[in-house]
Amino acid sequence: MKKYMNKSITEIHEALIKGEVTSKELIQESLQKSHEIQEKCNAFVTILEDAKPTEITDNLLSGIPYGIKDNYSTKGILSTGSSNTLKDYIPFFTATAIENLTKIGAIPVNKTVMDEFGMGGTGTTGHTGIVRNPWDKTRMCAGSSAGSAAAVAAGAYPYATGSDTGDSIRKPAAYCGVVGYKPTYGMISRYGLFPFASSLDHCGVLTRSVEDAAIVVDNMKGRDKNDMTSWDSKDIHLADSLTGEVKGKKLCYIKELCDISMYKEATDTLKQHLENFHQVLEQVKKLGIEIEEVSVDKTLLDALASVYVVISCAEATSNMSNLTGFIFGPRGEGDNYIEMMKDYRTKNFSPLIKRRFVIGSYVLQAQNKDRYFHNAQRVRRLLVDTWNQLFEKYDAVILPVGSGPAKHLDESKDILDKDTQALEEHLQIGNFGGFPSITIPDGFIKNLPVALNITGKCYDDENVLNIAYAIEKSMNYKNQIAKGWNHD
Question: Over the chain (488 residues), what is each successive 10-residue block's mean pLDDT?
């Protein structure tokens, strides 16, 4: 029997219109694939066995299955945030972004595993266990959208939703050889997304091509009265803007991140990764795109990770103060409400989350606030201003994602190598400034995918995606399925 879940959205839609396959058959295929992936990669919190077919319309997403990251509220469906604190939580409302997909006939077939409440970059801290990379099960998917990345890479469906607070869509996409797109802040409503750090949180998508990312976000986005940070994007048409015409566009990359001489103890993997990146840049120039090297203060770049930790932990501590065990979640034990709350939070949060809450509480204390929190905000502003100055001259910044391919799970300690810290963490600038940012595969090292990232100025999503689309076309990594998972 012919398979469809490894194909693009447009190809699947055409097959539905022609009657080659039905929505019901697509659901069956996706569910079967989900069980295979669950067995080998542990990518799902919930598999929706009772998913129902929908009417096929002119909308490209109608009748096609997809996955939902488990921090999107879904009415009547378990929504845990991959945390024991919400292990039995079934919401009474659906996130606006998911509601928008439901209205046009898209069909969720599972909820994907994530790092607990999005706080982690490894895919190893969810309450249901470690998510394994479909390219190599001894390696991580990165996080926090680990399950979504693994599922799309292994061919469960053409797309899954994600959320991105530091790089949580774009890094897992890179590690799993797929596309990860975080639109401009507020293009997609955050109403119904479990908040981690509200000034940094973005909704987005993981797909296997730039075109599919554009199609999905076109259907997720829109102003929402329930999210005051959402804005009117009805004049932005992402899929229609993908012309591939990029002659005369200007990109820049940052010397301090991309020059191998900046790394005193560069590994062979890092050397290969940066060599591959520079080779891709030469290819990109053949498209008529100008590329220039620019320099950014290394001290500013080295402050990146610290700024992210301080701001994200402070906002998380505030946002998650409602997790008490009284309103929802398993009730804690104790003789009074303070003991019960302490028991609930002590037993049900992972050590990583507790550490982040301690940091968040500490930097918000009156005696520490100016030294840590306010200073972090000042440096955030300096970084955003620096990037905005680049966008005055360049259409986008193009950089490699991380220091190489997916790391082994036994290297998953939440500690960064100081030498490559800025290279690993630079995607956070896209969250600091709310910039549109997309990661696309650009090669392989040791048979594992690596990727590059394109970030542009706010509200310039059409331009950013079109540049990514043209670069993707010049390479051979579009619609790739993880090795060993392809099926026809």
Answer: 94 98 98 98 98 98 98 98 96 98 98 97 96 98 98 98 98 98 98 98 98 98 98 98 98 98 94 98 98 98 97 97 91 95 95 95 97 98 98 98 95 66 97 98 97 98 98 96 79
- Strands 107-112, 202-207: pairing is unpaired
CB proximity list for 464: less than 8 A, separation 6 or greater: 395, 396, 436, 437, 438, 454, 455, 456
- Give one word for 63, left, alpha or beta, with left for phi > 0 and alpha for psi -120 to 50: left
Annotated catalytic residue within 34, 62, 82, 168: 168
The question of whether 168 is a catalytic residue gets the answer yes
144 is catalytic: yes
CA–CA distance, 402 with 404 (Å, rounded to integer): 6
* Rounded to 5°, angle at Cα 430 from 389 and 247: 60
What number of residues does the chain have?
488
- First vs last C-alpha separation in the chain: 8
Residue among 144, 209, 230, 437 flagged as catalytic: 144
pTM, whole model, 2 decimals? 0.97
Told to judge if 418 belongs to the known catalytic residues of this protein, a careful annotator would answer: no
**Which of the residues 69, 182, 221, 457 is marked catalytic?**
69
